[in-house]
Amino acid sequence: MNVAIVFDSHSGTTARAARAMAQAFTNNGHSCFVAPVHDAIPEEIAQAQLICLGSWTQGLLLFGQHPTQATMSFVERLGDLAGKQAVVFCTYKIATGSTLPQMASALEQRGAQVKGHFKFRGPQPTGDFRAFVKGLPA
Ligand SMILES: Cc1cc2nc3c(=O)[nH]c(=O)nc-3n(C[C@H](O)[C@H](O)[C@H](O)COP(=O)(O)O)c2cc1C
């Protein structure tokens, strides 16, 4: 499967998670392209069969959590995503609130089917993400 990972990272954690996710995809036979939201070209990302969108969690730690503006602005620049699969992921310290649902909803509004929601408390993808990758058809 052709996978694109786009992420927003303030201090590097989400970038490291994105790179570790890419390694998991390639280890399982998929091709994977990784780019920060500030550099990613929407037309290129929209060509992937599976689009993974990642943000760090921004908020007041226990409430008011949301994805970053840069993450949501990138989704607005993506065109029609009908027929595309998507994954949303975020890194966080305490609680993610509506971070992942907001990202999933924005992608779904463009027609993507969101197949996974993953949150990582640090740069390492969790076991549920690794199980998801193992279950993907090549
Ligand atoms: C301004 C600011 C607000 C944050 N708000 C939250 C929050 O509401 N909930 C939470 O769990 N983590 C919060 N965090 C922690 C980050 O989401 C977490 O450290 C994340 O992994 C940082 O990713 P990055 O290194 O890619 O920027 C906040 C961090 C910052 C700098």
Describe this structure in words.
The chain is of the alpha/beta class. It has a single domain (2-134), classed as Flavodoxin domain (Rossmann fold), CATH 3.40.50.360. The chain is 34% helix and 25% strand. The chain has five helices and five strands, in the order E-H-E-H-E-H-E-H-E-H. It has helices spanning 13-27, 42-45, 69-77, 99-109, 127-134; strands at residues 2-7, 31-36, 50-56, 85-91, 113-120. Strands 2-1-3-4-5 form a five-stranded parallel β-sheet, with helices on both faces. Helix 3 links the parallel strand 3 and strand 4. The longest helix is centred in the N-terminal third of the chain and has 15 residues, at 13-27. It is globular and about 40 Å long. The mean pLDDT is 97. The protein binds flavin mononucleotide. Flavin mononucleotide (FMN) is lined by residues 9-15, 56-61, 65, 91-95.
The level of helicity is 25-40%
Ligand species: flavin mononucleotide
How many helices does DSSP assign? 5
Q: What does the overall shape look like?
A: globular
Beta percentage is 15-25%
Q: From the alpha carbons, calculate the radius of gyration and give it in angstroms.
A: 13 Å
Q: Which class best fits the helix and strand makeup?
A: alpha/beta
Can you summarize this structure?
The chain has a single domain, classed as Flavodoxin domain (Rossmann fold). It is built from 5 helices and 5 strands.
